Amino acid sequence: MKKFLTAAMALTIAASAGAAVAQPHSDHHRAKAEQRYDRDVRKAERKYDRNVRKAERHYRAAAYHRPPGYAYRHWNRGDRLPPAYRAERYRINNYSAYRLPPPPRGYYYTRVDNDVVLTAAATGLIASVIVGLFQ
Questions:
Q1: Rounded CA gap, 67 and 131, in Å?
Q2: Neighbours of 112 (CB within 10 A)
Q3: CA–CA distance from 66 to each of 28, 112, 132 (Å)?
Q4: Which end of the chain is less enclosed by CB atoms within 10 A, N or C?
Q5: Residue 119: how many CB atoms within 10 A of its CB?
Q6: Which strand ranges, in their side-by-side order, compose the sheet holding 115-120?
Q7: Which residues in the chain land under pLDDT 50?
Q8: Burial, 12: exposed, middle or buried (Cβ in 10 Å; 0-12, 13-18, 19+)?
């Protein structure tokens, strides 16, 4: 019986020693993974900031109603605006009232939710996004 208890005690000590050694190793990998995740998030935020401008001023405008069948979506430069959003009712013709520069030839401003996108007339390609111009 004494040999059995000694063997069980030795096995318990060996098992707990192995777990103690493995723990800092997993914490090290967890810390590295968190650093990689944080770096990727910062990189994505920099890319987002490069393609999207945040509105410096906010304007009140008439109630906005999306085209039927569409839900809120965040638009980015390079996306294509669906034809339903390119209808005349969503265009911003009085861009100077919102202190927007005149759009280049072949482009127009479109209101999408509370944002404004500069859209190519022929293709619907988004050239620029201004987030939060409307309240």
A1: 19
A2: 22
A3: 48, 8, 16
A4: N
A5: 27
A6: 52-54, 126-131, 115-120, 107-112, 91-92
A7: 48
A8: exposed
Structure tokens at 103: 């759009």
* pLDDT, tens only, 80-114: 999 998 889 999 999 888 888 999 999 999 999 88
Give yes or no for a contact between 112 and 123, defined as CB atoms under 8 angstroms apart.
no
Exposed/middle/buried for 120, CB within 10 Å: 0-12, 13-18, 19+?
Answer: middle
The letter for the amino acid at 98 is: Y
Structure tokens at 121: 């007339």
Which residue's structure tokens are 């906010």?
A: 58
Residue 75 near residue 133 (C-beta atoms within 8 A): no
Match 């013709």 to its residue by tokens.
93
> Burial code of 53-89, b = ≥16 C-beta within 10 A, e = fewer?
eebeeeeeeeeeeeeeeeeeeebeeeeebeeebbeee
CB of 54 closer than 8 Å to CB of 129? no
> Tokens 């072949």 appear where?
106
